[in-house]
Amino acid sequence: MKRIWLPLTLILLLSLLLVACTSTGNESAPAEEQSSAATKETAPAEAKDVVTWYQYDQNNEDPASDERVGNEYLRNTIPQFNEAFKGKWSWVNQPKAFDKMTTELVAAVQAGGDVPDIYELSNTQDLVDFYRHGTAQDLSEWAKAQSWWGDLDPAGITACTGPDGGLYCIPMAERPQIVYVWKDRYPNGFPKNPDEFMKKAEELKGEGLYAMTFFGSTDKGGEGVTRAIWTTISSFGGSFDDGKGNMVLNTPENIAAIQFLREIVAKEYVPEIAFAGGFREEDAFKDASAGAFPTGLFGYRYLNPLTAPSGKKYDKGNAEDMLDAIAAGDIYVSPYLSTEGNKPGCGIDIAGFVIPTGAKNVEGAHDYINWMMEPEQNAQWVAAAGGGFPVLKATRNHEIFQAPLYTQASDALAVSECRPWFGSLQRPNEAQEQIMNAIYKLIKEDPTANIEEVLTKTQEEYNANN
Amino acid sequence: MQKTALPRSRKRRFQNTLPFWLILPTLIVLLVVQVYPALYTVWLSFHEREPKGWVYVGWGNFQRLFHQSLFHESIGHTIVFLVGYTVITMTAGFFIALLLNRKLRLSGLYITLLFIPWILADIIAGMVFRLLVIPDYGLLAGFLQNPAIFPPKGLSVLTAVPPHPWFGDFPFPPAPAMILLILASSWRALPFITLLLLAAMQTVPTEIIESSRIDGANGRQIIRHILIPLMLPTMVVALFSLTLTGVNSVGMIFSLTGGGPGTSTEVLSYLLYTIGWNQLRFGRAAALALMMAIVNWLLITGTLRLTRVEERSR
Q1: How confident is the model at residue B6 (pLDDT cuts 50, 70, 90)?
Q2: Do both B39 and B127 map to the same domain?
């Protein structure tokens, strides 16, 4: 009897070990199966998968979801793609958290894990990290041979070009920063210069209102720099770099911009919630207690529900609220203010596609991109998934972009000068945190601190690691 | 004779090595999930990623950390957080355990209620506290931002500027957001610590306490000279648990303050998160992780030395 126990124990332990090892591999399967269930239904079994990573989830049908537009887009478009490539490709989307998908991709490529065939790029500065980590494939040769290549806006191509001249993404949409304005708060238009702004802000303060709200906190790794902070800096003619990869903050233009921000904070023209983080600065615009909100054009999707100064409610609780408010004339889109000799500044991002290193179905990914470059598909993707304006010139006249939101934004951009905030900086994620910490300190935490001193210290700390 | 001797020696050898074979699966799992990542972290801390691949940078990652002003700030914030968190949790946990040990009516219900924070995830607990104090819109904003209660302008916990430090650059007194973070973290950890201490308290023989009472000891003397010495091993375990979670946890900070306002709640664990996750500087993050592991080790051995548990247990 004893003889039996030993081998039995060993077999039991071995099987437990095997179960433990295999179960980890199976755990991820249901999630993937679930996420791709909708796509597989319409595709024949022999079709090969084209795996994508989007921040949207085709299985999320919640009408109040923040990402409703993108979710719905995928739900409608995946079957169309599968139909177009019946028997050849089957689009399988794996939804990812917007703020974690970059790191996840970098880690997956480095670990030799499963990577998608197409990655939805929503942030130009991520490309700098992709280049450093060898995450993205150089698409120059293939892209230049495609029919749509000549029709791409050169600015989009530049944004996708790495330091070695390689093309690391296919640009699809240009996502600018603009200003959303409540008509009743600024009936004669958003102020054109700082003096006008101060005058109007004082007036609004007298009515118990705020002139504007903006992403003023250091939250999300200094994300605020990419929004209103950069819009303000560039509107004053400032920048964060010298064009050679060095951070240069201590300039008269930057100092003037920071003094302006410092003043509007000190005079309480900006609500306290602007500094609370977690995107809560939006609340002050949603209830119209703040008259204006400089942010991304793409941001219209998250600004809901809205209560107009008249008390009228736009409360569908989804992206339609902002579109309805603009259509009704309660909100309009405006360029930012600027100083003499400068155009209103704004940041600009590129959304597009990356084919990661190690993608299993590169041919499928190429077909996917080509399909997305067809005018109708391109317009739908730019409006729903990418946000902003098409990089493909042929799509710019599509009816989607004749809606008030786009025409007003287009007019605003025509008089603005938009450029990526990080210029030639090669460590944008690090830079944005350092810059935001410095600016927050100067405008909120310690409004008496010496601006030049803080800016010099910050740039020296960054440049020491160049 | 030889024929029978061989199987016996083989059997004996097998029996001698049996414990090894039995723990082998565990060893393999430990090697895969603990030893390998630890060694990889060490390797990573001496490398940095460049477009051409991984490059050996020697102590470069450590040097860059030391030259980063936020790293120095984070050390100060970590000390303030750790001291506040452990002192408040241990003290409150001890006194709540004392109350529950008195066998009050409905003490079972109290223990159940007390346990609620423990079942909440850090992230959720942080969000709940955040919703209470969001400026202008939070549940307690009306009270906190009332200038009559907190003159001259009311208190906006999440955005209030930290007070001027008393000792050079050391962040003391802490910012209101840091105080909230300490209170929220303590609230979250309190149930476990209370139950741990209550369990230890209930193992103290009542005869000893009774006889000390007869000998004229008052409540404070009983706590100081009887309860605490007898509960010391459990208290050290509780202190370990609090120290490790205090140094390493990031969830509550992530959802409650995001390291802000400014950098006033940026502790080492959050800095590690931002370097690794936001900036994708895996080498530098590994270097910081390594330093934090050493800090953890120092804190544990320090606590052991301080409480002299090592000597007592020998």
Answers
A1: low
A2: no
In B, minimum Cα distance to A220 occurs at B258
User: Which residues in chain B have Cβ-Cβ distances shorter than 8 Å to A464?
Assistant: 67
Mean pLDDT, rounded, for B181-195: 96
Strand partners, A136: A356
Helix axes of B228-248 and B282-307: crossing angle, nearest 10 degrees: 170
- Cβ–Cβ contact A145 with B under 8 A: no
What's the rounded mean pLDDT across residues B209-225?
Answer: 92
Set of chain B residues whose Cβ sits within 8 Å of the Cβ of A6: 18
Q: B247 to chain A nearest CA, in Å?
A: 20
Say yes or no: B36 and B69 in one domain: no
pLDDT for the residue numbered B194: 95
Q: Which of B11, B55, B279, B288 to mutate to test the interface with A (most CBs of A within 10 A)?
A: B279
In terms of residue numbers, what domain contains B22? 2-45
Who has greater pLDDT, B300 or A127?
Answer: A127
- Is A433 part of the contact surface with chain B (CB cutoff 8 Å)? yes
Q: Are A176 and A413 in contact (CB under 8 A)?
A: yes
In this prediction, residue B107 has a pLDDT band, given cuts at 50, 70 and 90, of confident
Mean of pLDDT values over B203-217: 92
Residues of chain A with pLDDT under 70: 1-45
Intra-chain end-to-end CA distance of chain B, in Å: 49
What is the average pLDDT score of chain B? 91
DSSP assigned state of B162: P
Tell me the Ramachandran region of residue A374: left when phi exceeds 0, alpha when psi lies from -120 to 50, beta otherwise: beta
Taking the CA of residue B40 and the nearest CA in chain A, the distance in Å comes to 12
What is the pLDDT at residue B82?
95
* Cβ atoms of B71 and B65 closer than 8 Å: yes
Q: Strand A170-182 vs strand A290-296: parallel, antiparallel, or unpaired?
A: antiparallel
User: Which DSSP symbol is given to B161?
Assistant: P
CATH 3.40.190.10 assigned to domain A45-174+349-408? The reply is yes
Residue B176 in tokens: 């209101």
Secondary structure (3-state) at A46: coil
Identify the burial level of B130 via C-beta atoms within 10 angstroms of its C-beta, where 0-12 means exposed, 13-18 middle and 19 or more buried: buried
| Local structure of residue A134 (DSSP, 8 states) | T
Q: Distance between CA A168 and CA B42 in Å, rounded?
A: 31
Chain A: residue whose CA lies nearest to B25: A17
The H or E element containing residue A212 is: strand A210-212
> How many CB pairs (< 8 A) connect A and B?
110
Q: What pLDDT is stored for residue B314 in this prediction?
A: 44
Q: In terms of domains, do B161 and B296 share one?
A: yes
* Contact A346/B at CB under 8 A: no
Beta bridge partners of A292: A181, A212
Do B139 and B185 belong together in one domain? yes
Q: Does A164 touch chain B (CB under 8 A)?
A: yes
Q: Quick one: DSSP state of residue A190?
A: S
- Shortest distance between the Cα of B250 and any Cα of chain A, in A, equals 14
Residue in A with minimal Cα distance to B23: A13
Q: Which of A132, A278, A283 sits opposite B50 (nearest CB)?
A: A132
Q: What is the pLDDT of residue B4?
A: 54
**pLDDT at A393 (0 to 100):** 93
A102/B280 Cβ within 8 A: yes
The CATH number of the domain covering residues in A177-348+412-463: 3.40.190.10
Chain B partners of A273 at a C-beta cutoff of 8 Å? 134-137, 159
CB atoms B25 and A17 under 8 Å? yes
What's the ipTM? 0.86
Q: What is the pTM of this model?
A: 0.88
Give the pLDDT score at A23.
40
Residue of chain A whose Cα is closest to the Cα of B263: A437
Question: Cα–chain-centroid distance for residue B9?
Answer: 51
Confirm if A122 and A147 have CB atoms less than 8 A apart: no
